């Protein structure tokens, strides 16, 4: 009589491996996978993509979503389109109806994710337009708060904005700056917008609505003329911030001096080195972040840069090379209440008809792949209050 035997296969799963010949793969690795998670030593199918309700506008992609608490302790969940700011109504949850209320504000740039920040019970946002807007959750409309008055910036009616917005030292900072000149400044004509991709501009200390250094000397800007590239993102970590460029990283540190509030130090040679090559590939959750460089994918903590591309790196880089639009990354701590799955997700649009998501489990240290036909990610995915 034959004897019974079994060979168990199970985690910990090492996930996607495209850099080893298939005949040499371990049983915990796979050369190709779609819509499976390798979580907690288990192989799980991904949950189906479900549209809970419609977006604010048909044929006008959402450029981001975030939430904040106003001065009356009311929570607002907000979304952005090129038309401006929208608010999710707490009283309308029916998929057949539009649950979004249009708040308004100045228009936003096409195909550019919005960078937003809650500060002092106000909600600030910009996305490469030459102004920074804020909404208090109470007034009827958002307002432009980054106005400039000095003649050297174009005088009254001028303003400043940027691609990236963050806070450090009780000051809001704009990175990769755009300036609108209401009046002519030298050879720059009136009514024009100028991009300064190597510029950092910061508000007055504790006064995020003042950006003109002639109005308050704790506001100002810094041009990094010693680097050959442009700023592509930022990661703020307590009293320091990492300013990412194509070919390098610059550390911003608080000095305690109101007139020169920051000290800047290139982490390596300013000419060439590890940097972030995709402006929206930087994602952060607490003290953990990640970004994509020319040759590798890195996880960032306060004191270390760790390579995490592993055996999935070549597949990710190959898809990035043929992306049909800008890849967008995020770090999502959970998918539902009680379902914790801290992951770094790189969403790569392909052929403008579907998105391939490379998902790195920060706890299990493996990569998996998801695909969402008909879905193109146009803003940063985010966990919001409701």
Overview of this structure, please?
With 386 residues, this protein is an all-beta fold. 2% of the residues lie in helices and 43% in strands. The strands form 8 sheets. A 5-stranded antiparallel sheet has the order 13-14-15-16-17, with no helix packed on it. Strands 5-6-7-8 form a 4-stranded antiparallel sheet, with no helix packed on it. The chain is globular. It starts with 14 loop residues before the first strand and ends in a 13-residue tail after the last strand. The model has no long low-confidence stretch (mean pLDDT 91).
What key attributes describe this structure?
mainly beta, 386 residues, five-stranded antiparallel beta sheet, 43% strand
Map the helices and strands.
Blueprint: E1 15-16, E2 29-30, E3 36-39, E4 42-45, E5 64-69, E6 75-81, E7 84-88, E8 100-104, E9 115-119, E10 122-126, E11 133-135, E12 143-144, E13 147-148, E14 158-168, E15 171-181, E16 192-202, E17 220-223, E18 231-237, E19 240-245, E20 249-254, E21 262-266, E22 283-285, E23 288-292, E24 297-300, E25 305-307, H1 313-321, E26 328-336, E27 339-350, E28 354-361, E29 366-373
Parallel strand pairs: 1-2
Antiparallel strand pairs: 3-4, 5-6, 6-7, 7-8, 9-10, 10-11, 11-12, 13-14, 14-15, 15-16, 16-17, 18-19, 19-20, 20-21, 22-23, 23-24, 24-25, 26-27, 27-28, 28-29
